[in-house]
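Example 3.2
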Amino acid sequence: MPGGSSGGSAAAVAARLCAAATGTDTGGSIRQPASLCGFTGLKPTYGVVSRYGMIAFASSLDQAGPMAKSAEDCALMMNVMAGFDERDSTSLNRDKEDYTRDLNKPLQGLKIGLPKEFFAEGLDTGVGKVIEDAIAEYKKLGAEIVDISLPNTGLSIPVYYVLAPAEASSNLSRYDGVRYGHRTAEYTDLMDMYCKSRAEGFGAEVKRRILIGTYVLSAGYYDAYYLKAQQIRRLIAQDFEEAFKKCDVIMGPAAPSTAFKAGEKVDDPVAMYLQDIYTISTNLAGLPGMSVPAGFSTSADGKALPVGLQIIGNYFDEARMLNVAHQYQQVTDWHAQAPNLDKPEGTA
């Protein structure tokens, strides 16, 4: 699997069919594909890049960003993509930035926070080894390692799968076959058209999320689920606020494993959801995050598959993150390598 939901863009960039592409990240949908496919992907701070033109999934989480081979390419993309857009009510009116300005700045004295929750049970051993090697490389570049904790990380999955489906339920209600979306060919009355159009137009996972979202927003369950999830979301953001008092950037794996086979997890939605355990919390907090190629790990069937190092920054700190990634890519060539499953060493 190339990862989701920006898997099409991911596959195109990884196969070198294009120099760069745009992706959308709601809970990790730029960073997870970047990790699984072996290229650089950046999710900016919420509101920095316009959401105009997207089909909204979860409006308070969705964020567009660049996907490219290197951090330098992503910085060039950000120079074009970032900026205020009056057509997007969530767009931030900020001064224009040059995201390439700090690319060549040395990393001496940089404080890197390592959350203990990112290196606990559930992380594939091979992936963990690749991340440890990447951290060691940063030490050589002059960075200082700081142990931190994000205690509410484990709650990010349940919080996300209450809030995101709730917003999806609302956003996708317009796709009824009247003005938006697919319209069924045969129907007897208006209600029949609604039912058939949505039944035919939405896939199984979309229907699952609409049903969950409608349930948690219903009168008897709003306070118990949706409101409680919003309160925990605030706690997750506070965890990051405390962490950034001790460090400049946070690092860890972008995904708990390498790419899995197509269809392997289709009958186990929870296993699929857990693939986003390290990425969702940044969306809930509105923070920027990126995935950088850090090496390869051998799968159970002997395939060498890409591993992504996740870099999380404070609000509007994309230029520093790109600098941190670029300096790593000056002393390693993982971003220049492409997976080749026909070769034992796994790279082309």
